[in-house]
Write a structure and sequence with these properties.
The protein is an alpha+beta fold and 149 residues long. It has a domain at 14-107: 2-Layer Sandwich (Double Stranded RNA Binding Domain). It has four helices and five strands, in the order βββαβαβαα.
């Protein structure tokens, strides 16, 4: 097992994770492929200990654990698996890229919506739609007096 060429993995401008904190496990991939698939360990599982990582702040740790709960096991370890290609190196690169994307998305702070008033044109349009709808409903009513039945 060779380590990646870079010694850190950049997640965001504020967060880089040392490659030493990631561990990789290799196993045989499933599916068709004849002898090749039975002999080569191309499936890659990336593991990252979110709960005990010294690179993360408490706020980042909590955010990742809550947003990526489906990827994190009971011990606080993040698991990402790839067996998309027949190459171990490609699958490894795929897991690292997915790791970066998942963590970046989990740490992204959503902007708070600023409440605004509807524009005058929007108000007029809403009222016109209400009048049009009322007109449609008026045409559905019974014409004439009360028939009683």
């Amino acid at each position: 097992m060779t380590e990646p060429t870079t010694d850190t993995i950049t997640i965001t401008a504020e967060l880089t994770i040392p490659a030493a904190e990631l561990s990789f496990r290799f196993s045989r991939s499933s599916g068709p492929g004849g002898q090749h698939v039975n002999r080569s360990e191309t499936r890659v599982e990336l593991r990252f200990d979110v709960a005990h990582s010294p690179s993360l702040t408490d706020e980042q740790r909590a955010r990742i654990l809550s947003r990526l709960a489906g990827y994190v096991d009971g011990g606080g370890e993040l698991h990402i698996v790839s067996s998309a290609t027949r190459s171990q190196a490609d699958n490894r690169a795929d897991t690292v890229a997915r790791f970066q994307a998942l963590l970046a998305a989990a740490l992204h702070r959503r902007k708070r919506r600023v409440a605004t008033r509807p524009t005058g044109a929007a108000r007029r349009q809403r009222l016109e739609q209400k009048h049009r709808r009322a007109g449609i409903k008026q045409t559905r009513q019974r014409v004439g007096g009360d028939d009683g039945g």
